[in-house]
Design goal:
It catalyses: ATP + protein L-histidine = ADP + protein N-phospho-L-histidine. It is a single chain. The protein is built from 16 helices and 19 strands. It is α+β, with helices and mostly antiparallel strands. Among the domains are: about 55 residues, no CATH class; about 120 residues, Histidine kinase-like ATPase, C-terminal domain (Heat Shock Protein 90, 2-Layer Sandwich), CATH 3.30.565. The strands form four sheets. Strands 1, 2, 3, 4, 5, 6 and 7 form a seven-stranded antiparallel β-sheet that branches. A five-stranded antiparallel β-sheet has the order 9-8-12-11-10.
């Protein structure tokens, strides 16, 4: 390595410059990857927290609805009359059961509504409860329940005619509205299955899940059925405290690591706890890493190519002079070199040229020949430039704009690249309708960046036409004509409408604008010029775009395919043509 460096100045410069470029690029890529991965994780957390808030809003609505319903039931006159009667009243019993049934009918989340009387009258309920776990729950929590005007129970089971259901209930005493004498007890039960459905249909990450915890951190709903009514610390030991109203926790290690988001329902101090597997971030980070590596790799290749090219360009005179001086013969003419710079290389070459006094008479001729040769080389090189060089250059500008977070420049360069690529199209004359429309839209996009706010373009194309072949570069000149001669001459923004419809065996295209329009005399002259067949006096030159499109349509599709122009001054212009549907391009 040391010997390789010592033999050439070009080697030394190449190595030093490559190191100076590679290290900052790698550092930039690493920092970009770190920022992108952090942003990805933060975005996922924000999205998850928003989802928890949406679920909380639903649950808060249900809770508030149940509590309002309980007040409505307690104050119902027939319910008060049934509970405060001296004896059982069958008629009121039937009336109240119907009332409760109708009340709960449209609310899927209500499992049952039950009213128990202190007088031992038959309980009122919208459904037949064969067995209820509520009495056991009330006995275990009697002190809490008796000291509360309303109380939400833990999760328990009810056996009804519809099967075994897990429920959580709002329980509150019923008193006489006049003298506050205890009359009974009201319980409204929420179906845990419906709550679980809310959690599953919330749009949470498919590989994660959401749990609903009560004020004591026992699982009310969500997750696996075996977890229900158990402290969350049993299935998830070391989960950590959730003391704040909302927050983020990290749980587990390795492949089982999860991000935990929690949000507290203000009304009951219940918590929504969402679990997101960390592998989701890892998968997204792999994608970000791949994109970053590709971007840095392309930048490195481009930088290395430019460095090698410029070093070659700078050291070429020295290399040539070195090769010449190795075999110099004083008896033969000494070649001279044109001095193009005043730096160290230029001074060295100037000193070298002083040795060529004996061939001074040939110097001007040699310089002239060299200049002509270089000019010819430049012209030949320009003639040989491959369009792909332009595409690659535009692609590089596109990537640089993206790396600098200038999306508008990136999109404009991308549209221009697609526009030029389609214009060449490997020399082919035909393309699908869909590609022609895309070409026109790329042109309109570039123009919209150049002239912001001056126009808008809307495209309506029959989907059945999109894959049909047509002669290319027909729509873009018409759109350009509308912009230059119609929209831009107007004092206010305008519209360009592009329509395409399939009618039998022909495709009709219309380009319409809301520009200044065309005066009647000028419109007649344009039509006469387009109708000129070559016989008689030549027509004066009209718009190059219109004439070019019209002639190409006639050459490829016949006389029925020419342009039709209609215009009204001050309102706009409409240009249309109709071409046959072809299976293969002619």
């Amino acid at each position: 390595m040391k010997r390789w460096l010592s033999k050439s100045l070009k080697h030394k410069l190449s190595l030093l410059l490559l190191i100076a470029i590679v290290l900052p690029l790698l550092a930039t890529g690493a920092v970009s990857y770190k920022i992108a991965t952090s942003a990805t994780e933060e975005k996922a957390k924000q999205s998850g927290m928003n989802t928890l808030r949406q679920i909380a809003d639903k649950l808060e609505f249900v809770i508030q609805d149940v509590e309002n319903m309980s007040l409505f039931i307690i104050g119902q006159r027939e319910v008060q009359a049934y509970l405060d009667n001296d004896r059982e009243d069958v008629a009121r019993y039937t009336l109240n059961v119907g009332f409760l049934t109708n009340l709960a009918f449209s609310k899927k989340y209500i499992s049952n509504i039950t009213i128990n009387s202190v007088n031992g009258y038959p309980p009122l309920s919208n459904t037949t409860v064969l067995y209820s776990g509520l009495p056991d729950v009330l006995r275990k929590n009697e002190e809490i329940y008796r000291n509360s005007t309303k109380w939400w129970t833990p999760l328990y089971e009810n056996q009804t005619t519809e099967g075994l259901k897990k429920v959580v209930s709002l329980v509150r005493p019923i008193r006489n509205v006049n003298n506050f004498k205890p009359l009974g007890e009201l319980s409204i039960s929420l179906d845990e299955a419906e709550i679980a459905r809310y959690l599953k249909e919330s749009g949470w990450e498919a590989k994660g899940f959401v749990l609903l915890l009560d004020a004591n951190n026992r699982i009310l709903s969500g997750g696996e059925s075996a977890w229900l009514n158990r402290p969350v610390s049993e299935p998830f030991p070391d989960i950590g405290p959730m003391a704040e109203a909302s927050g983020v926790l990290n749980y587990g290690h390795g492949d089982g690591q999860k991000t935990i988001l929690y949000y507290t329902l203000p009304s009951l101090n219940w918590k929504l706890v969402g679990f997101i597997p960390t592998q989701i971030y890892t998968a997204q980070n792999v994608y970000v890493l791949t994109v970053t590596a590709v971007a840095v790799g392309i930048s490195l290749l481009l930088a290395a190519g430019l460095v090698l090219y410029f070093i070659q360009w700078v050291t070429r005179p020295l290399t040539r002079m070195t090769q010449t001086m190795k075999d110099i013969n004083p008896d033969e003419p000494i070649p001279t070199y044109e001095v193009k710079s005043s730096d160290e290389v230029g001074l060295l070459l100037h000193s070298y040229n002083k040795l060529s006094d004996r061939i001074q008479r040939l110097k001007e001729q040699v310089q002239l020949n060299e200049a002509k040769k270089k000019e010819a080389d430049i012209l030949a090189l320009q003639a040989q430039i491959n369009p792909h060089f332009l595409y690659n250059t535009l692609s590089s500008i596109h990537w640089m704009a993206l790396m600098n977070q200038d999306r508008q420049i990136a999109e404009m360069v991308g549209a221009l690249s697609d526009f030029l690529r389609f214009s060449l199209n490997k020399g082919e004359e035909f393309c699908p309708v869909q590609q022609e429309i895309a070409h026109a839209q790329n042109y309109a996009y570039v123009q919209s960046i150049r002239f912001p706010g001056q126009f808008e373009m809307e495209v309506y194309i029959d989907p059945a036409m999109l894959q049909q072949p047509m002669l290319k570069l027909l729509l873009q000149p018409l759109i350009e004509n509308s912009l230059i001669h119609g929209i831009q001459k107007k004092q206010e923004p305008g519209f360009v409408y592009v329509h395409g419809e399939l009618s039998g065996a022909r495709m009709k295209f219309v380009v319409e604008d809301t520009g200044i329009g065309i005066e009647a005399d000028k419109l007649r002259e344009i039509r006469r010029q387009l109708a000129w067949t070559g016989n008689g006096a030549p027509a004066a030159k009209t718009s190059y775009g219109l004439r070019n499109v019209h002639q190409r349509l006639l050459l490829h599709y016949g006389s029925e395919a020419g342009l039709t122009i209609d215009s009204e001054p001050g309102k706009g212009t409409r240009v249309s043509f109709s071409i046959p549907v072809l299976e293969e391009p002619a």
